[in-house]
């Protein structure tokens, strides 16, 4: 009995469930849902279907969802609500599953960048602005309208082309085509040089140009930059201004160029194009014809050939010459010691004396032998009459050769027997005695050279001090 009852209530339950499913199923079949909107009220109805659009439930059985366009406006909804007589004029799309009217229609509706303001100047990384056109029109075009330096408007011609568009307006006819950058930026070098505040980097590159670099140009890492902001279709330049009377040189961007009543302005177009080096004026003399040439006061000058960017001072024994280091310039020979300068006109007017500078204690093993003087470091002495010296000194860890200007080698004192002095630039190249002795010591300890004892005494006297 109990068992029969159980079966009975089971079958009742099953019957009830089946009936419920049937009702639910009928309800699903019955109520078609469609997106419902009108682009006259909400432009997203045309541009972003499916995003937060309202949904309606069609009231009639066997209804359809539609997307239709009339007079450029897009409408979505249940067919019988929008078109009670069931007729929807083309272009119109009908479908009969719930929410089937959610896509962009027609599927080839033109897409353009649509935005305005400063963020609209460059849209290459703003895909969120690329949308279907709100108003539909066959043969529509995208436009870009440039108002001024900080405002650009982009959109679809049929939707909202501005009245100002004939002026700076670009139109095009394929998806996403209105991407022209309306403002471009180009950089120039910006600097000022004048007599009271010299700026050598503004005149010419201070690094000696390598052979591979045919033309001298300013170094864009040591000179500051300025930026020309240029509207589409316009052109701005870089400029260089020079006034030889006032010794003023100015470089910069044409958008911020001042007014110059005299002097010469040259302009050019392109990134950092105003980088040309200024030609130089050099002191020109030699110590044979002009005794004042060495002291370097009130020297005659010459304007160098175009393209010259350095002046030289060369000294061979006691003969000194100065002039333009133009393309014909070369040292007179191996003994001719030359210094170049480029930081100002007549920069070669100062007195000159330089010496080989080294210390065998450093990595400079050639300091004692001087097999290759041309590879040796040189040093500018503090005075044009300073002597060059070399000597041998000892420290706790060994004996070394030292060379330099007299003032740089205090070990080279009056009672230093190893001190050798000479009067002339780069004259301190003689190999030192110690080097020969050292070789003898190492290779043949039984055969000590004559000066061995004195050197040992010298060494200990230094070491014990
Ligand atoms: C629904 O659409 C399908 C496919 O287009 C079609 O075969 C069917 O007849 C339509 N049904 C209704 C009720 O419109
Ligand atoms: C400087 O100029 C060189 C070549 O002219 C260029 O390659 C480089 O990018 C420039 N440097 C800067 C900071 O713009
Ligand atoms: C030195 O200068 C004088 C005058 O400019 C010139 O005549 C002479 O040739 C020069 N001497 C040398 C060796 O360059
Ligand atoms: C020595 O002086 C010349 C010119 O004045 C300069 O170009 C050069 O760099 C100086 N050398 C050193 C080692 O300072
Ligand atoms: C070095 O030579 C110059 C010119 O030849 C001379 O005037 C000067 O007196 C000499 N200096 C020394 C210390 O000998």
Automatic annotation (TrEMBL):
Protein name: Uncharacterized protein isoform X1
Keywords: Membrane, Transmembrane, Transmembrane helix
Ranges of residues in domain DUF753: 33-101, 111-178
Classification lineage: Eukaryota, Metazoa, Ecdysozoa, Arthropoda, Hexapoda
Top-level taxon of origin: Eukaryota
Protein's organism: Drosophila suzukii
Regions that span the bilayer: 12-29
Pfam entry (one): DUF753
């Amino acid at each position: 009995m109990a068992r029969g009852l159980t079966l009975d209530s089971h079958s009742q339950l099953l019957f009830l469930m089946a009936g419920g499913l049937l009702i639910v199923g009928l309800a699903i079949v019955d109520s078609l849902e469609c997106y419902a909107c009108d682009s006259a009220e909400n432009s997203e109805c045309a541009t972003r279907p499916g995003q937060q659009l309202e949904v309606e439930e069609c009231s009639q059985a066997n209804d359809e969802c539609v997307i239709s366009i009339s007079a450029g406006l897009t409408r979505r909804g249940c067919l019988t609500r929008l078109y009670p007589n069931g007729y929807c004029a083309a272009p119109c799309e009908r479908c009969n599953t719930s929410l089937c009217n959610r896509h962009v229609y027609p599927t080839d509706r033109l897409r353009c960048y649509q935005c305005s303001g400063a963020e609209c100047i460059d849209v290459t990384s703003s895909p969120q602005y690329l949308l279907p056109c709100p108003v539909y029109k066959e043969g529509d075009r995208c436009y870009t309208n440039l108002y001024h330096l900080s405002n650009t408007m982009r959109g679809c011609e049929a939707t909202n082309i501005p009245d100002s568009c004939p002026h700076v307006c670009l139109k095009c006819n394929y998806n996403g085509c209105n991407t022209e950058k309306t403002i471009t930026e180009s950089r120039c070098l910006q600097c000022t040089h004048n007599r009271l505040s010299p700026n050598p980097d503004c005149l010419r590159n201070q690094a000696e140009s390598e052979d591979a670099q045919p033309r001298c140009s300013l170094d864009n890492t040591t000179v500051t930059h300025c930026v020309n902001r240029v509207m589409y279709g316009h052109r701005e330049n870089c400029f260089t201004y020079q006034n030889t009377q006032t010794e003023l040189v100015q470089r910069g961007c044409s958008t911020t160029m001042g007014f110059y009543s005299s002097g010469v302005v040259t302009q050019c177009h392109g990134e950092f194009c105003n980088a040309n080096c200024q030609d130089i004026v050099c002191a020109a003399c030699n110590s044979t014809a002009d005794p004042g040439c060495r002291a370097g006061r009130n020297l005659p000058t010459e304007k160098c050939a175009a393209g010259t960017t350095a002046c030289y001072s060369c000294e061979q024994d006691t003969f000194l010459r100065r002039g333009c280091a133009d393309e014909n310039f070369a040292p007179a020979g191996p003994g001719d010691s030359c210094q170049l300068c480029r930081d100002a006109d007549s920069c070669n007017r100062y007195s000159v004396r330089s010496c080989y500078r080294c210390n065998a204690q450093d990595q400079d093993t050639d300091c004692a032998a001087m097999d290759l003087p041309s590879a040796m470091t040189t040093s500018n002495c503090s005075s044009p009459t300073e002597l060059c010296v070399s000597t041998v000194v000892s420290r706790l860890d060994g004996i070394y050769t030292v060379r330099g200007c007299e003032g740089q080698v205090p070990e080279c004192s009056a009672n230093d027997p190893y001190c050798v002095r000479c009067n002339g630039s780069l004259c301190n190249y003689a190999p030192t005695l110690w080097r020969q002795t050292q070789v003898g010591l190492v290779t043949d300890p039984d055969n000590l050279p004559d000066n061995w004892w004195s050197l040992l005494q010298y060494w200990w006297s230094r070491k014990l001090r």
